């Protein structure tokens, strides 16, 4: 499988130095031998106990520096000594440069911490380090893609806090960069289906500190771009073995009192590089604009959820229709309306007749004879009939006593409902029973 090698210069913010370290470049003491170092730069200390440390994920690590006549012993510890410890001598009667101070290439592909410590009050210097990691499958080609600071994969917050004219802009990748001095500013870099990422920017005497968060995991401590010698296209963040899918790298401006700046500290973004192989791309998509592919289980779950949602919508529409159409409120009737096949007849209400106009006909005396329907009363046996039981003037249907003659006051008053005449107590009691519904309704015939 492809072996990915990353070179990190001594002035990179990802290398964390303790106190009493000095920059050995052109602005750091004027050591004439600096031209023998990588990028003509090195970082050195002559204080016992001073150390440099860094964290990474990979299988190999090499530390390079010089071996000179004024150098002493040093110690390297991997994973706090649980993985590896190494003691060596930095002294050489003949000055040699870009020498391997430490080399370990059989680490597991996990996260490791490496610390190199000066064991004497003699010099120890760091030139650069290299990291190795494997990506993809056997016989695959490593693919790298650069994303300039103006690429849509970068989003700057708030936009008004960022400018596009950083110092030494001509030394930037594609001569462009974004810079900020706002303590509330941050930038997000979104990328997909990649296995490793590196972010580049400048270091400067007016450089500021910053925080890095990758996929919600924050860096152990702030990084700083505050260096004596200005440098461009410097690795400001690196991460390996990210795996396929979408990733979010957030960098926040976080100036520190330790930033020795004579002017307003600034932080700038140059570009980012992502690393991948064909197998990683095929496992989750391709490019920054692509989306990671869903597994079969996730797709099945989405299908089931979609069907369930459709059923809920259909049932909701049925309930709404039954509520508006029939006024049902019971949930069972809302889903399956129950039609009442046998309805109970409404009780007889004589007062309801007042809502129906009478069919009146003129009589011979010039008055109006109201039309009343004939009521069939239950048949009474002849042996129990009495002429005084129901006077003829109170028999319903007898139109002779409902004319406008002189005895009309003894019959049914034409101005009142004839059923409500109270001249006979028994008839009145029976009529009131009808009104109260305690007596069965009479049968009408036209």
> Could you give the distance between the termini?
106 Å
| Average of per-residue pLDDT values | 77
Helix content: 10-25%
Q: Which residue ranges are poorly predicted, with pLDDT under 50 across at least 5 consecutive positions? A: 285-295, 351-359, 385-427
Number of DSSP strand runs: 29
* Structural classification: mainly beta
The whole-angstrom Rg is: 50 Å
Taking the sheet with the most strands, its summary is: 6 strands, antiparallel
- What fraction of the residues are assigned to beta strands by DSSP? 25-35%
CA-based shape? elongated
Number of helices, counting only DSSP H or I runs of 4 residues or more: 4
What report would you give on this structure?
The chain has 446 residues and is mainly β. It is built from four helices and 29 strands. Strands 14, 17, 19, 20, 21 and 23 form a six-stranded antiparallel β-sheet that branches. Strands 2-5-10-7-8 form a five-stranded antiparallel β-sheet, with no helix packed on it. The protein is elongated, with a radius of gyration of 50 Å. It starts with a strand and ends with a strand. The relative contact order is 0.11.
């Amino acid at each position: 499988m492809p072996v990915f090698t990353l070179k990190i210069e001594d002035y990179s913010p990802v290398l964390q130095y303790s106190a009493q370290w000095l920059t050995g470049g052109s602005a750091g003491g004027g050591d004439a031998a600096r031209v023998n170092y990588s990028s003509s730069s090195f970082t050195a200390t002559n204080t016992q106990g001073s150390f440099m440390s860094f964290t990474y994920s990979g299988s190999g690590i090499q530390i390079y520096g010089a071996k000179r006549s004024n150098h002493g012993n040093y110690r390297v510890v991997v994973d706090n000594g649980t993985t590896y410890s190494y003691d060596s001598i930095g002294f050489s009667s003949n000055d040699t440069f870009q020498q391997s101070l430490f080399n370990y290439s059989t680490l597991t592909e996990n996260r490791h911490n490496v610390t190199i410590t000066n064991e004497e009050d003699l010099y120890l210097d760091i030139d650069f380090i290299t990291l190795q990691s494997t990506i993809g499958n056997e016989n695959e080609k490593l693919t790298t893609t650069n994303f300039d600071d103006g690429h849509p994969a970068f989003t700057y917050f708030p936009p008004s806090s960022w400018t596009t004219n950083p110092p030494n802009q001509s030394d930037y990748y594609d001569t462009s960069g974004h810079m900020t001095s706002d303590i509330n500013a941050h930038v997000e870099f979104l990328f997909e289906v990649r296995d490793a990422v590196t972010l580049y920017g400048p270091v400067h005497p007016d450089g500021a500190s910053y925080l890095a968060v990758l996929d919600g995991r924050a860096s152990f401590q702030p990084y700083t771009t505050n260096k004596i010698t200005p440098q461009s296209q410097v690795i400001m963040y690196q991460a390996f073995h990210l795996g396929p899918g979408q990733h979010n790298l957030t960098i926040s401006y976080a100036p520190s009192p330790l930033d020795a700046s004579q002017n307003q500290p600034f932080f700038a973004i140059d570009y980012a590089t992502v690393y991948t192989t064909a197998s990683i791309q095929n496992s989750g998509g391709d490019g920054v604009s692509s989306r990671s592919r869903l597994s079969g289980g996730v797709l099945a779950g989405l299908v089931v959820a979609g069907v369930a949602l459709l059923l809920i919508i259909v049932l909701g529409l049925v309930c709404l229709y039954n509520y508006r159409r029939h006024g049902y409120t019971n949930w069972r009737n809302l889903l399956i309306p129950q039609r009442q096949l046998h309805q109970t007849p409404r009780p007889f209400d004589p007062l309801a007749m007042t809502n129906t106009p009478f069919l009146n006909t003129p009589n011979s005396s010039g008055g109006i004879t109201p039309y009343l329907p004939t009521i069939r009363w239950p048949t009474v046996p002849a042996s129990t009939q009495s002429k005084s039981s129901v006077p003829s003037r109170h028999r319903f249907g007898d139109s002779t006593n409902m004319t406008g003659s002189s005895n009309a006051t003894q019959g049914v008053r034409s101005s009142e409902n004839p059923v409500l005449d109270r001249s006979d107590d028994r008839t009145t009691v029976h009529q009131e029973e009808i009104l109260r519904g305690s007596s069965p309704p009479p049968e009408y015939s036209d």
